[in-house]
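SECTION: protein entry
WANTED: fold as tokens:
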Amino acid sequence: MNYRHIYHAGSFTDVMKHAVVAMILSRLGSKETPYCVLDTHAGIGRYDLTSAQASKTGEHLGGITRVMAGAETLPAALEPYLKAIRDLNLGSGGALRWYPGSPRLARMLMRPSDRLLLAELHPEDVETLRAEFSRDRNTSVQHIDGYRAIRAHLPLKERRGLVLIDPPFEVTDEFERMADALLMGHGKWPTGIFALWYPIKERPAVWRFHEAIERSGIRKVLIAELTVHDEDTHMRLNGCGMLIVNPPWQLDKDLETVLPALHAALGARAGGGKIEWLVPE
């Protein structure tokens, strides 16, 4: 309950995660029928990069600040994500002050007819989140554990949509909890898109997570990873990944272009982008 994402808002991990989310939502929005997004660990919605907390770590300087500085050279598939950030900062005099968390990013890319379900367990953060979306009748904010929200809301009545699972990894068994949640959620809604974010610090933990998903019997599982350091120590965050079940058509092809471009824009001297099918269709 002590985690505060404001210290990490706009970091390279946010850039990778939210770029992928924006690409998924763009594909969902290309069809006329409404869809729904369930965000299991929602946070507060938007983050002030000039706040004392964000300034203390300055992680955004090596993340979204660098990316926006070279935005004109990035692939077209990233434009929905980049446009959302520009639009959120229209009143900031050209400065990059606000960074959208996944709830605000999703709502900016969604249509009025699309539904957004937000789960947040931190008592202070959930009140901030409610204030952020108080005038949006198609956004629901619940003070609930994100894994319980999966059980409560699936299958989504729209039959189309995304479940974003993005925990803070404060507990040592988070990989196991995510795998269990995916297995349960997929059992209730096998045609839905699930996107699970994870940190890359200790590679064996990632391998065990992937192996658990492989053994589950779930099909059509795509892995996207971005690392910015050599994986020669587990004492730092070397990168992050997204495990995506039922990814939209051609997402893998787009990511083959997007991830190397983001790696270059971030100025990383090690690591790189990686796309692979963990389990094919």
